[in-house]
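A common beginner's mistake is to predict each chain separately and then try to dock the pieces by hand. The better habit, illustrated here, is to supply every component at once so that their relative placement is modeled jointly.
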Amino acid sequence: MGITKSNLFSEHQNQLSQIFKALGHPARIAILEYLLTAKSCICGDIVDELPLAQPTISQHLKELKSAGIIQGTIEGTSICYCINMQHLEIVKVFIEGMSVSKIENSCC
Amino acid sequence: MGITKSNLFSEHQNQLSQIFKALGHPARIAILEYLLTAKSCICGDIVDELPLAQPTISQHLKELKSAGIIQGTIEGTSICYCINMQHLEIVKVFIEGMSVSKIENSCC
DNA sequence: TTCATTTATCGTAATATTGCAATATTAAAA
DNA sequence: TTTTAATATTGCAATATTACGATAAATGAA
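With all components supplied together, the output reads:
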């Protein structure tokens, strides 16, 4: 099928998995790492930095954006992309919660 | 194409995105949540709990396993699946690192 | 051995993702 | 207005993912 039965799962499960899915590609990790370390957050700089064609980068940026992980602000002719850390809070809570639960509830 | 050019990215970027990818499905999040909260970690109980067919669950378990997120131990006739929190440390570090970097380096 | 139970695998249909060339859009500069 | 530069969109080919029925494999029980 290739179609995810998201109606069968909770809002939280869908929300969380959607963010994880957006993070599930090396190019998108590379984009985020670039945004974190570089002084610039201009789209063109990302295109120059990554070893993929411009339309491909644009598509990856779109996916990160639609998952709420980054946001773009128009800056003259170019666009400045920045990380929306607030939206990643749900992920942080999940991962940190796992560490705790795992200790409390480990059978193997 | 549908094929990821992983050779163009770093080991770290590939490793990280692979784990995120495995977490990018609501059923797999549901499985992990079940393993964290339930006393049981028996495969059959997961199948009973989730609204998907047994072969589908088996496939999702396989993906979590091959990403190193869970591990299975034979327990008589059934199999006990458990979370391998150690393998998720890389994700924890990444997410926590983002919070810090973002504060230090925010332009928007 | 035969049967029942549990989990994995195979095969396949439907759909999604990845990547890019070509092209469109947008807005500043000349 | 025309040109230039920066991004986005379209269209498409190649491949991957999701889901499940049918079936296999493994193991304990009768």
